[in-house]
Amino acid sequence: MHGKSSAVLVPNWGSRWGIWLVLLLAALLLGYYLQVSLSMTGGQLGVPLDDAWIHYQYARNLSQGDGFTYAPGVPTAGSTSPAWTLLLAGVGLFTTDFLVPSLVLSALFFLLTIWLTYGFTLELTQRWEVALLAAAGVALTGRLLWAGLSAMEVTLFTSLTLGAVWLYQRRGLGVGTAVLLGLASQARPEGHVLFALVMLDAVFSTRWQYRPNQPIATWRAIILAVAIYGLIQLPYALFSLSVTGKPLPNTFYAKSRTTTLYSWRTLRETWGYHWRDNLASLLLLPFGLVFLWRRSRITAAWLLGLLLIIPVIVPFVWHHGRYTLPLLPFQLIVGAVGLWWLVQKMPRLPRPIGAVVGVLFLLAGAWRVPAWAEMLGYNTREIQEIDVALGGWLAAHIPADETIGIDDIGAVMFLGPRPIVDLNGLVSPEVWPVIGQDVAAMRLLAASDVRYLAIFPGWHPLLVGDPQIARPIQRFSTNTQTIIGGQEVVVYEMTWPYRRVIEPQVTTSVMLGDGIRLRGFDAQVADSQLGLTVYWESVTAVSASYKAFIHLLDGAGNIVAQVDRPPVNGLAPTDLWQPGDLVRDPYQIALPPDLPVGAYELRVGLYTDENGRLPISGGPAVDNAVVLTSVEIEN
Q1: What is the largest CA-CA distance in the chain?
Q2: pLDDT (tens digit, 9 = 90+) per residue, 573-629?
Q3: Which of 479, 523, 522 lies closest to 504 in space, CA to CA?
Q4: I want to staple 450 with a disulfide (CB 3.0 to 4.6 A). Which of 372, 373, 405, 479 is the partner?
Q5: CA–CA separation, 260 and 314 (whole Å)
């Protein structure tokens, strides 16, 4: 790696065959990763993300003529990577088994990424040693090898961005560059950031030529590129607008929610991943940026720009930081160039020293290769034990016309298509306003006729915390949690408080205040408990949050048992009620063990701590409490 930047090494064995040896090494490492994964899953081939199954579902529907639908007959812009979906849909014209083809495609795009890294670095430096160093660094990066067997769009997006930047470096802002940039944005929404950076660079170059021997952009070329890019984006953007009123895919809005302007947690964790990927490349980053600042400003802008912009978009890191994974080849290119630049600046440095540093550069990434091979195995096993197992069970045990509320939607839908409500909003935009709000989500799920939930309980503690509302009927678990949302997923049969029809044992029509009517109740005594279900109707929208009180009184008017709480234990608060709501409000009231035999009076009412009880009209009442019935306590 010793020499001047203007020197071009005469082609020899290293420049001719070196890249093929690197590609062979990468292919062998992919085989090693696959072998490790299969050994950890008992020989069962799988994928490390449930999101891969989401792509399979879209691709299958698209290849069968159903358009961009996820649940049968429901158009939705839930694919964050329409380019990957279209590619898999092409596979779907020949087979309905997407697993093997998707793994092969992600692996091939990983190999293409290595080749593009070599070619682009060679273009920048005219040194095959530097180009091989960068390419080998990519081949020995554990996270990129993981992505090569993820069956996801990561490596497609990586190769498209590399190709676009290389073509822009070589030919400027031409038709080919605009097309590659447009396709990159269809592979991942982050591609819009790269296009914006290229446009800024192109505008800058119309005034100051800072890249030696590189074409200067013209305003005509800029306008043409914007037009081509826009035409590529237009179909899916119009489709998304037509179904959600927003131009980007559902998944972008579902995952980009944040309570702060900038997530320092995301920045810290993202840099942590890249630091561990290859420490040497980040240490060499400043020196590489010095060299590239005039030769390829867009490389530096893309690498640093996306790393700094991602914390604006997402509040935490997803899936091992896969949204910035495509930056790793650029990181290794800049690191390799930085090492070469340092060697150039120290002409008296012995050649072996440069070679040793180059080896250390590769070892800085290679030491993590076994760990990421195991990570692939853990991830794949968890998806098999939770999502694939759940999808198979639901297909076998729950009727296909039943709407299910679910967290991980991929394998569940592919293995048994049915109506769903995606509680994370990836394909159900109607959920966006209530994401993370179990109480508000309950109304939406009830209105959607969801009778079953298949969810991670820890994600929705309020939704399934009351056994009178949620009855668990099946569980799936895994011993680890390296990628999955939780170590246990549970299928619940739900009895929602919000009802379309009520059938109380005893009907009433008692008004509490001006907005709430008591429509009836069920009551029975068993096993030292009074079981009571009250049925409320919201006549008008209710602004206050009332508590219900249930009193059981003896003949002298003394309260012998009582419950005070918001309706449905706070899961259906009155301030969320809308006109026409029917609410089923169940209670289990423990009776004193020494309660004498006899008749007791059961009363109910609503109150606030500030304003007291609501007045009663239209039925028997005492002290603004509705007298429901007389309860007989027997031995």
Answers
A1: 108
A2: 999 999 999 999 999 999 998 899 999 999 999 999 999 999 999 999 999 999 999
A3: 522
A4: 405
A5: 10
**Every domain of the chain and the residues it spans:** 13-18+104-367, 375-496, 506-633
What digits encode the pLDDT tens for the residues 191-235?
999 999 999 988 887 765 555 555 667 888 899 999 999 999 999
Give the span between the Cα atoms of 247 and 237, in whole angstroms: 5
Return the beta strands (E) in 445-597 as ranges. 450-455, 470-477, 488-494, 498-499, 506-512, 516-526, 529-538, 547-553, 559-565, 582-590
Please state, in angstroms and rounded to a whole number, the distance separating the CA atoms of residues 625 and 384: 55
Strand partners, 626: 604, 621
Task: Give residue 84's pLDDT.
Answer: 97
Query: Three-class SS string for 75-107?
Result: ECCCCCCHHHHHHHHHHHCCCCCCHHHHHHHHH
| Alpha helix segments (H runs only) across 149-174 | 154-171
- The phi, psi pair for 212, rounded to 5°, reads -60, 130
The encoded tokens of residue 78 equal 């839930």
- The pTM is what? 0.89
Residues 396-407, mean pLDDT to the nearest whole number: 95
Cα(431)–Cα(231) distance, integer angstroms: 30
What CATH architecture applies to the domain 506-633?
Sandwich (2.60)
Contact at 8 Å (CB) between 110 and 148? Answer: yes
